[in-house]
């Protein structure tokens, strides 16, 4: 019995020390450093708008997609994650169904539908679309809102980010920011 206690005691002490080190101290240090150096990102990159009456309203995260389906808004990528193979019959049917939705939603637009409007992102919550996908929607948004297409394009351009370090990734348009700007909130 004494031998068993002698063996278990160091394991329990190690467990307790590692719990305090990794579960408490490390977590507190990382949280504290992130709050000091990157408070906006650490708190979810929430877009907060100052309203005319002086109050603030939170509209969502700039990092997580919001669903828009009204014609006066820029519409983002389909949400939801699937483990479908890009060449599977199920994926082809899903893409075809989304293509048909776009054609019914905006029958005047006969241009090719950009792929990011009919395929979900890997995360299923991508807040960005390609500049091509945004351009595809400019005419519909301008007509619905009764504003010039150039005004819509200028707003889209304002919320388009370039490649990281000039060569990593692709340019991207933040859908939520564009829609808030279209509503005059940003």
Describe the structure.
The chain has 186 residues and is mainly alpha-helical. It folds into 2 domains: 40 residues; 138 residues, no CATH class. It has 6 helices and 5 strands, in the order H-H-E-E-H-E-H-H-E-E-H. The strands form 2 sheets. Strands 3-5-4 form a 3-stranded antiparallel beta sheet. Strand 1 and strand 2 form a beta hairpin. Helix 4 packs across helix 5. The termini are far apart. InterPro entries: KdpC.
Question: Key features?
Answer:
mainly alpha; 6 helices; nucleotide-binding; ATP binding; 186 residues; 2 domains; 10% strand; P-type potassium transmembrane transporter activity; Potassium-transporting ATPase KdpC subunit; membrane; single chain; two-stranded antiparallel ribbon; elongated
Sequence stretches where pLDDT stays below 50 over 5 or more residues: none
Compute the separation of the termini in Å: 70 Å
Order of strands across the biggest sheet? 3-5-4
The sequence of SSEs as H and E is: HHEEHEHHEEH
Organism: Hydrogenoanaerobacterium saccharovorans
Subcellular location: Cell membrane
Main location: membrane
Family: Belongs to the KdpC family.
Helix/strand layout:
Blueprint: H1 2-37, H2 39-42, E1 46-50, E2 56-61, H3 89-105, E3 128-129, H4 131-145, H5 149-158, E4 160-161, E5 172-174, H6 175-182
Antiparallel strand pairs: 1-2, 3-5, 4-5
Helix pairs in contact: 4-5
Task: Give a quick summary of the entry.
Helices cover 48% and strands 10% of the residues. With 186 residues, the chain is mainly alpha-helical.
């Amino acid at each position: 019995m004494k031998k068993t206690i002698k063996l278990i005691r160091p394991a329990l002490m190690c467990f307790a020390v590692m719990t305090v080190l990794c579960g408490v101290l490390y977590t507190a240090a990382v949280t504290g450093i992130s709050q000091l150096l990157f408070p906006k990102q650490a708190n979810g990159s929430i877009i907060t708008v100052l309203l005319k009456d002086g109050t603030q309203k939170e509209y969502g995260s700039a990092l997580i997609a919001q669903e828009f389906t009204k014609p006066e808004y820029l519409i983002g990528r389909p949400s939801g994650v699937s483990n479908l193979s890009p060449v599977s019959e199920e994926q082809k049917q899903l893409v075809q169904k989304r293509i048909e939705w776009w054609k019914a939603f905006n029958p005047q637009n006969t241009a090719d539908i950009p792929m990011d409007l009919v395929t979900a992102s890997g995360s299923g919550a991508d807040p960005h679309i390609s500049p091509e996908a945004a351009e595809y929607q400019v005419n519909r948004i301008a007509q619905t809102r009764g504003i010039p297409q150039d005004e819509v394009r200028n707003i889209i351009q304002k919320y388009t980010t370039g490649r990281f370090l000039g060569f990593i990734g692709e340019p991207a348009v933040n859908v939520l920011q564009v829609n808030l700007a279209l509503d005059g909130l940003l």
